[in-house]
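Retry 2 of 3 after timeout on previous attempt. Resubmitting structure tokens to design endpoint.
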């Protein structure tokens, strides 16, 4: 196997080394391309461009493989809990009992959010989308935790990391509670990380909180499945913002905004809204299949297709089983589910979807579980953000520890050539 590629341009030959990853992925190292040849590359959507070398998550879209730090998503979803997975992603190894206990204890010590933050939340209308609120609150946290901004040593990074892992769930819970008109509250440090999040979100003021193992397990699994996904839109955003040394919280706030979009994390909300719209329109799935295939119709079947998974999404397989379990255990009979099942069956048999390798992705099922757990549709993407938090942190930390240069893509300019200014009265 050759360890270089040769480019021939204007009669000259240039060699570029091949970089090989631990899973034998190969890439052309073009760091010297521009200085050697004067050429740049063009690759809209970065479909062929590796932005970094990363040791966090491996995925093979053709084979449907997803691994965090070498461990398969199937094994982690079955055997680990979310906090263990967070530690694994961020620090590279599964924690032992003492490490996990210390990590959790350090997080608990930081679980207080400055009361002044409530005033900021108060300024938002109830109708505000929770993702916008969450992104703003995450940014606002910087003002209350200035020592978490310019973190360069591993120790300072650690403190910023436990701080955000502690405070972010409070912001998530407050965002939901404001929407529901419930009093803003704190959690209970005697509970597990995910159980505490659930309590903070759902505890009613006049009732004792009752934990439900099925619900907590399903939530834990969903958060694990969403915890990292290598260089996707929001993660690349976190890394690129962080590359300017803007700080962890500012980078995360930008990542939340990127995740908001319906082509990325917002798809889980879009799936449910689509299913509800189909139901309201009489439940005719065939009509919507036809719309999805019509090139003159902007409608897309939300929850289908993926930029990298071209055979199946391994997360979707796990979550489909979890969805069935949760719905059975909670005894939920939801007409939306029949529509989802109908669409899934038709799409999997339809040449348009089969030929383009469009399979249900993780978000096709996650919305169905969130709905069964009583989480409002507008909060779905917030739940995705909660799950993705450790992944964003891990990617940001790796980028900083590797001393990566500021992200600054080039372009090919296609505008006007030089022209002279014309006074306004002469135009
Ligand atoms: N419904 C109908 N047609 C589709 C769909 C869809 N959901 N997705 C892709 N296509 C068609 C597309 O029109 C194109 O057709 P043609 O080749 O005839 O022009 C072909 O399939 C390839 O699509 P693409 O847009 O070039 O593929 P992409 O890799 O750029 O986009 C995607 C991937 C996820 C943005 C897209 O499949 C999509 O919009 N899906 C619906 C939104 C969704 O579910 N997003 C969540 C992704 S999973 C969560 C996450 O990891 O962020």
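Retry 2 succeeded. Sequence:
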């Amino acid at each position: 196997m050759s360890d270089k590629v040769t480019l021939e341009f204007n009669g000259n030959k240039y060699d570029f080394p091949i970089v090989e990853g631990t899973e034998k992925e190969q890439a052309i190292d073009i760091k010297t391309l521009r200085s050697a040849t004067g050429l740049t590359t063009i690759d809209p959507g970065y479909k062929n461009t590796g932005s970094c070398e990363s040791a966090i998550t491996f995925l093979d879209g053709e084979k449907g493989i997803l691994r965090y730090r070498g461990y398969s998503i199937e094994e982690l979803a079955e055997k680990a809990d979310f906090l263990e997975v967070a530690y694994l992603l961020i620090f590279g190894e599964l924690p032992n009992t003492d490490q996990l206990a210390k990590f959790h204890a350090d997080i608990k010590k930081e679980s207080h959010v400055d009361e002044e933050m409530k005033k900021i939340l108060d300024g938002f209308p109830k109708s505000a989308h929770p993702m916008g609120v969450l992104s703003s609150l995450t940014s606002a946290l910087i003002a209350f935790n200035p020592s978490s901004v310019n973190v360069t040593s591993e120790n300072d990074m650690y403190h910023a990391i436990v701080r955000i892992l502690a405070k972010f769930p409070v912001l998530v819970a407050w965002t939901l509670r404001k929407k529901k008109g419930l009093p803003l509250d704190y959690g209970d440090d005697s509970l597990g990380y995910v159980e505490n999040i659930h309590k903070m979100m759902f505890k009613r003021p006049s009732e004792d909180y009752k934990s439900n193992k099925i619900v907590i397990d399903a939530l834990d699994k969903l958060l694990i499945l969403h915890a990292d996904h290598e260089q996707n839109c929001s993660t690349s955003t976190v890394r690129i913002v962080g590359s300017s040394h803007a700080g962890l919280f500012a980078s995360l706030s930008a990542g939340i905004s990127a995740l908001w979009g319906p082509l990325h994390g917002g798809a889980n909300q879009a799936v449910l809204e689509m299913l509800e719209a189909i139901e309201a329109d009489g439940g005719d799935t065939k009509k919507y299949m036809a719309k999805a295939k019509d090139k003159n119709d902007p409608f897309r079947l939300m929850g289908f297709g993926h930029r990298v998974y071209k055979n199946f999404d391994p997360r979707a397989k796990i979550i489909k089983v979890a969805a069935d379990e949760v719905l059975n255990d909670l005894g939920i009979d939801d007409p939306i589910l029949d529509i989802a099942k109908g669409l899934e069956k038709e799409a999997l048999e339809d040449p348009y979807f089969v030929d383009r390798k469009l399979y249900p992705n993780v978000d096709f099922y996650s919305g169905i579980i969130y709905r069964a757990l009583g989480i409002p549709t507008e909060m779905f993407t917030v739940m995705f953000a909660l799950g993705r938090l450790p992944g964003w942190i891990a990617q940001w930390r790796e980028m900083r520890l590797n001393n990566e240069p500021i992200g600054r893509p080039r372009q090919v300019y296609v505008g006007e050539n030089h022209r002279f200014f014309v006074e306004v009265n002469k135009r």
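Attempt log closed. The chain has a mean pLDDT of 93.
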